[in-house]
Amino acid sequence: MTRVASIGECMIELKQAGGGLYSRGFGGDTLNTAVYLARLGVAVDYITALGEDPLSAEMIGGWVAEGVGTGRVVRVEGKLPGIYLIDTDAKGERRFFHWRENAAVRSLLDLPETESLLLSLGEYDLVYLSAISIAIFRDEGRARLLAALRAARERGTRIVFDTNFRVRLWPDLDVARAVYARAFETADIVLASLEDLQLLYRDDDANALLTRIPANEVVLRMAEPTSLVRAAGATQTLTADPVGAPVVDTTAAGDSFAAAYIAARVAGVEPVDAARAGHRLAGVVVCHPGAIIPRAAMPAEVNPRLRKVAR
Fold this sequence. Notes:
Layout: E1 3-7, E2 11-18, E3 21-27, H1 29-39, E4 43-51, H2 54-66, E5 73-76, E6 83-88, E7 94-99, H3 114-120, E8 126-130, H4 131-135, H5 139-154, E9 158-162, H6 173-186, E10 189-193, H7 194-200, H8 206-211, E11 217-221, E12 226-231, E13 234-239, H9 253-266, H10 271-285
Parallel strand pairs: 1-4, 1-8, 2-6, 4-5, 8-9, 9-10, 10-11
Antiparallel strand pairs: 2-3, 6-7, 11-12, 12-13
């Protein structure tokens, strides 16, 4: 059975519910990916830290119900999860407002359990994390996490890095660029977006951005519904099918793309077809509000070979 770990932060999500009201859920980039991976039949554990409060307990219950493994979740006394609010415009484009500075996950790499968590990364077939997963920690924690990922990779674990960029999480762009460079060197697969990387490398076009990433396998999502897929020394352009319903919220478009891509790759699907699966799931997710769509809204078939993924 293929085992995947996803590392990062889950927060309380507040999304628009009409009439100036908001509904409460939970979400976070790597958690969203973990949920969609579980729905696609992949055995996935989520690695994070939460408080011992009722909202943290509710989150864990929700993850268990989705089939996400919670054995690597550390509970921290006296801490709470962070909060984010989604503000969407008429086209479904979203802005996030965060309250996360004192969230429990910030201490994940400074706990008595930290060493065993980092050593456990080598037990997985694949580890997925994003730039946000790294940005939320101090310099020492970032270095410790990247070293653990490199050690896991030496033991045969594939590392997937998503370039999800939030400028407010970084002290300055030079620090961010240096950390991204180390993450690129650590990863086997990089899932990137033009929007993210042009905030870091403002004068680079798509080709220049691809040259910055040494990984053998890279997907660069463009501003339009197109991806550049580089694998085995060749780059192909993939155009996504049109979205079949009005776009209401682009939250988790990239997260769901990552889940479908990873699920397809661990099932043996070639990178271009895996990217096609990513576009297909993301095209459904953006037609629903919030990060995690209702289970009933999941497409019946993201990729015909995904049924081969072991549960």
